[in-house]
Amino acid sequence: MAHKSAAFGLKWRSSPTDIRNHYAKRSAQYDKEVSDEIGYVAPRKAAETLATWIKNKDARILDAGAGTGLVGKCLQQLGYNNLDALDICPEMIEIAERKGVYKNMYVDILGGPNPIQLPSNQYDAVVCVGVIEQPGPAALDELIRITKHNGIIVFTWQKIQMKSISNRNCLKEPS
């Protein structure tokens, strides 16, 4: 039996096209599904975690896998105002844009065959909620590339998958 992600039936390690199509179909109802039906708290928890590390409200922050902008909205409520969004699905990005929390919006594939089209060392912090499970640990390399030296990356990861990243050098303290 194939492992299902928490994304309502999306097969584990689906192709970028399948992921994009899956979220395009669900985009209009996504916020209602995750907040009303399952009480999704990860966006708020990730924003609060980032706030413990990043005190500067003008810090440049990327919401990687922004979807409809749930994390961005939480960050805005905490006073952050220099937010960009990246997502694989244009339909999700359109909904996020309507929330008015992001300065720049990007559609790209995190963990795809090519690097995302963002410059290296660009962000003070990156937050990535409910995303890395699909492209896998290699997506962390891209997040590290676009984060400034001594920047912060906050991400969620299903407990069942922690073993696959626990020995990665990218999770160790810089020397």
UniProtKB/TrEMBL annotation:
Ranges where the Methyltransferase type domain occurs: 62-155
N-terminal signal peptide: none
CDD domains per record: AdoMet_MTases
Domain of life: Eukaryota
Gene Ontology MF term list: S-adenosylmethionine-dependent methyltransferase activity
Entry-linked InterPro entries: Methyltransf_11, SAM-dependent_MTases_sf
UniProt-recorded name of the protein: Uncharacterized protein LOC106164884
Species classification: Eukaryota, Metazoa, Spiralia, Lophotrochozoa, Brachiopoda
Gene this protein is translated from: LOC106164884
